[in-house]
Design brief:
heterodimer; A: 188 residues; B: 452 residues; alpha+beta; 8-stranded antiparallel barrel; 4-stranded antiparallel β-sheet
C-alpha cells in the first residue's frame, strides 16, 4: 500500500480531504485485517474506523522511514486485539471437546472446490474458537512471535503454542473433510 | 500438509480478500472523527517517546532490556562484591599475620610496653629520650635512645643498652650476638614473654602509626631541654581526645561478653543501574556472648541495619488489563528503612585472636514511609502519572527473612576487633512480580566490634 507523502502531510494538518483520501486508500487493507479478527463483516467496519481514528491522531509522529502500510497494519491489529479483549474478558485456555472435533471432521458440504476460494478458507478460520482464531491470525498470518502474542493476549507462551497447533490441526481436518465432500459430490 | 503450507495457504487467502470502499463507511468514519475532535483522549496527545517503528509501546521492550541488563548485572555485581570481600579478607589476614610476626620477632627495642600506661602492663622503665645526636639527626653517631637497665623490669636481669639504629638494623639473632652470654638465657625468655604480652597491641604500629603511642612515657621521663622539645614537637600528644581514644582502644574489656558492633552492610541485587537498591548502609548493634569456651563461643546479637538503596528506585512494568498495549510502571522509593537483625553465631576460635563464625540470621524490616509513583504508558506513549505516599516496605525485600551467615573475626586490640562475612537469605522474591527485579539473596557485612 502506497500513500503519497502529500496525503500524510494533509492528514497531519487535519485536512479532511486528505483524511478521506487516506481512508479510501487504506480501507480495503484495514478491512482485510479486521475481518480476520471478527466473525461478522458488520463488526469489522467499526473496528476499521476506530483504527483509522488512531492512525489520524498519531500520524504526526509517524516515522517516514517505516513503510506506512506496516505502521497502519500494526495499529489496526492492536485495535483488533483491544476489541477482542474487551469482548473476551476471559482469555483462558479453551479446550476442544470431542463433539467439536467430530463436527469439524464431518465438515459441511458447502461446495468447496479443491482449490478452495479465499473466502471459503477464511470462513474456515472464522469457524475456529475465538482465542484460537486470534492466535492463528497473529501467528500464522501476521507473523507474530509467541512471546508477543502472549503479551498481547495476556496468556502464556505455551498456551499460544497450544492454540496455534490446535488451529492448524483443526484447519487441516477441515480441509480434508472439505476435499472428501467435494469428491463425494463429484461421484454423485 | 505441513504447517508451513497451511500457514501459507491461509495467508494468501487472507490477502486475496477484496473489500470495496463505500462512502457510507467514510461517513461513519467521519462522524467518529468529529466525535473525537477536541477530546483529550490518551491517544490524542502522544508523547515524544512514542516510537512508531516499534510496534509494541515504547515500554514494551523495557522488560526484555531489563531482564538482559539484570542478568549481566547480577554476574557483575556478584563478581565485584565477591572480589571486594575476598580482598578484605586477604587484607585482614595479612594484617593479623604481620602483626603477629612483628610481635614475635621484635626484640627489646625502645617502645617496650610500660606498666601503668594505657599501652602495656610490664614494669615501668626509665627511657631517655633522643638527643640531638640521636640517629634521627645524626645517624652516624651512637644512638642516644636506650633502655636503661635493659629488661630489668621484666626479669631482674639487666641487659646492655642497645642503640635504636642498631635495633632497627639488626634482627633478633644479630642482637643476641651482642648480648653477653650470661644474660642470653634470661633475655630469650624475656623476649618471648614480652612478645606474648605485646601481642594484643602489636598491630598498633601498623594501623595507628600516626598516633602518639609512646608519648606519655617519654614526657614523664624527659628532663627539660632541647631534646625534650624535639621529642614533643615530633610526637605531640595532640588533643586530649586522642589520649581518650587510645585509652578506649587499649582498655581491657570488663566482662568480655558484651560487644558493640558497628559496620557496613549491603544487599546485592540485580536491579539495573539507576534503580539500584544495593548500597552500603550503616549497621550498629550489640552482641552478647552466651557461652564462652576456650575453643568456641556462642554469640547472640541484635543489630539495626539501615537498608539503603532505597534512595534509588525500584520499578516494574506490567500490562494493564483491558487497555490495549498500555504498560504500567510503578516506582516505589523509600528514604530509608531499618532492618532489625537477630543473628546467633557459633564462633570457632582458630587462634587466640582469630575466629570463624557461622550461624543463622533472622531479619525483620520495620515499616517506613514509601512513595509510590505510577506511570501508565498507553499505546501511543502518552504518560499518565500519579503519586502517593504511604507506609510500606522496601520493594523487593521481605519483611521477615532468614539467612545463613558466615565470616571471620579478628581481634586487633583487647577491646577492638574487625569482622567480615556474608549472609545468604532464603526467603526472597516472593514480593516481586517481575523476575528481573529479584534481589540476589546475598548480603555483605563488615565492620568493627568493641568489647565492653
Amino acid at each position: 500500500m502506497h500513500v503519497d507523502e502529500q496525503v500524510i502531510n494533509g492528514c497531519i494538518e487535519q485536512d479532511r480531504k486528505a483524511q478521506f483520501q487516506l481512508y479510501r486508500l487504506s480501507f480495503a487493507f484495514m478491512m482485510r485485517i479486521c475481518y480476520r479478527y471478527v466473525n461478522q463483516r458488520a463488526d469489522a467496519e467499526p473496528m476499521v474506523n476506530t483504527a483509522f481514528c488512531k492512525v489520524l491522531m498519531s500520524i504526526e509522529w509517524y516515522d517516514s522511514s517505516i513503510p506506512f502500510g506496516a505502521w497502519i497494519k500494526r495499529i489496526t491489529i492492536n485495535t483488533a486485539i483491544d476489541e477482542f479483549r474487551k469482548t473476551n474478558r476471559r482469555v483462558v485456555l479453551e479446550s476442544f471437546n470431542s463433539e467439536y472435533e467430530e463436527e469439524i471432521l464431518m465438515g459441511s458440504a458447502d461446495g468447496l472446490t479443491e482449490e478452495h476460494s479465499a473466502e471459503a478458507l477464511m470462513n474456515m478460520v472464522k469457524e475456529l474458537p475465538d482465542i484460537t482464531r486470534e492466535i492463528f491470525n497473529l501467528a500464522a498470518i501476521d507473523g507474530y512471535q509467541h512471546k508477543e502474542i502472549a503479551e498481547m493476549l495476556k496468556i502464556g507462551e505455551s498456551a499460544s503454542k497450544w492454540h496455534l497447533a490446535k488451529a492448524r490441526k483443526l484447519l487441516q481436518l477441515k480441509l480434508k473433510a472439505s476435499n472428501q465432500n467435494e469428491a463425494i459430490t463429484r461421484n454423485l | 500438509m505441513k504447517e508451513e503450507d497451511i500457514d501459507k495457504l491461509f495467508r494468501e487467502a487472507a490477502e486475496k480478500q477484496e473489500f470495496l470502499f463505500s462512502t457510507g463507511a467514510w461517513e461513519r468514519a467521519e462522524a467518529a472523527l468529529d466525535s473525537t475532535a477536541g477530546i483529550d483522549t490518551p491517544f490524542v496527545k502522544a508523547s515524544e517517546s512514542y516510537n512508531p517503528p516499534n510496534p509494541t509501546p515504547t515500554s514494551a521492550g523495557f522488560e526484555q532490556v531489563l531482564q538482559q541488563q539484570s542478568r549481566s548485572r547480577r554476574r557483575v555485581l556478584f563478581l565485584r562484591w565477591g572480589s571486594v570481600a575476598a580482598v578484605f579478607m586477604a587484607l585482614l589476614s595479612a594484617v593479623n599475620y604481620l602483626s603477629w610476626e612483628n610481635a614475635s620477632t621484635r626484640g627489646p627495642e625502645k617502645n617496650i610496653p610500660q606498666q601503668g600506661t594505657p599501652y602495656g602492663t610490664s614494669a615501668p622503665k626509665t627511657i631517655h629520650p633522643a638527643s640531638k645526636n640521636s640517629p634521627e639527626l645524626n645517624p652516624t653517631e651512637e644512638p642516644a635512645v636506650s633502655v636503661e637497665g635493659g629488661l630489668a623490669g621484666e626479669t631482674g636481669a639487666a641487659l646492655p643498652s642497645v642503640g635504636a639504629s642498631e635495633v632497627g638494623a639488626m634482627n633478633a639473632n644479630q642482637q643476641t650476638d651482642r648480648v653477653p652470654a650470661s644474660v642470653l638465657a634470661d633475655r630469650d625468655e624475656t623476649v618471648q614473654e614480652i612478645a606474648l604480652e605485646r601481642r594484643p597491641y602489636a598491630v598498633l604500629p601498623v594501623l595507628f602509626a600516626d598516633l602518639p603511642v609512646r608519648h606519655p612515657t617519654l614526657i614523664e621521663s624527659e628532663p627539660p631541654g632541647d631534646a625534650a622539645e624535639f621529642v614533643s614537637s615530633e610526637q605531640n600528644p595532640g588533643p586530649a581526645d586522642h589520649a581518650l581514644f587510645m585509652d578506649l582502644l587499649a582498655r581491657k574489656p570488663v566482662s568480655n561478653r558484651s560487644v558493640i558492633v558497628a559496620g557496613r552492610s549491603m544487599r546485592l541485587t540485580d536491579v539495573p543501574e539507576g534503580f539500584d537498591i544495593s548500597k552500603y548502609s550503616p549497621e550498629i548493634g550489640v552482641a552478647y556472648r552466651l557461652m564462652d569456651k576456650p575453643k568456641w563461643s556462642l554469640n547472640a546479637e541484635l543489630s539495626g541495619y539501615w537498608v539503603a538503596g532505597t534512595l534509588g528506585k525500584v520499578t516494574f512494568a506490567r500490562k494493564v488489563a483491558g487497555f490495549g498495549d498500555a504498560t504500567e510502571y510503578r516506582y516505589i522509593s523509600a528514604n530509608e528503612a531499618m532492618q532489625l537483625e537477630f543473628p546467633v553465631y557459633f564462633n570457632w576460635k582458630v587462634s587466640p585472636r582469630q575466629s570463624f563464625y557461622a550461624g543463622v540470621n533472622q531479619t525483620y524490616m520495620l515499616p517506613t514511609s514509601i512513595t509510590v509513583e505510577e506511570e501508565t504508558v498507553d499505546w501511543f506513549g502518552t504518560v499518565q502519572r500519579s503519586e502517593k505516599v504511604q507506609t510500606g516496605y522496601i520493594y523487593g525485600l521481605r519483611r521477615y527473612n532468614v539467612a545463613l551467615s558466615a565470616g571471620i573475626s579478628a581481634d586487633l586490640l583487647p577491646s577492638v576487633g574487625v569482622h567480615g562475612g556474608v549472609s545468604y537469605y532464603f526467603l526472597d522474591r516472593d514480593l516481586l512480580d517481575a523476575e528481573a527485579l529479584a534481589p540476589i539473596p546475598w548480603q555483605l557485612r563488615f565492620g568493627i566490634h568493641y568489647r565492653i
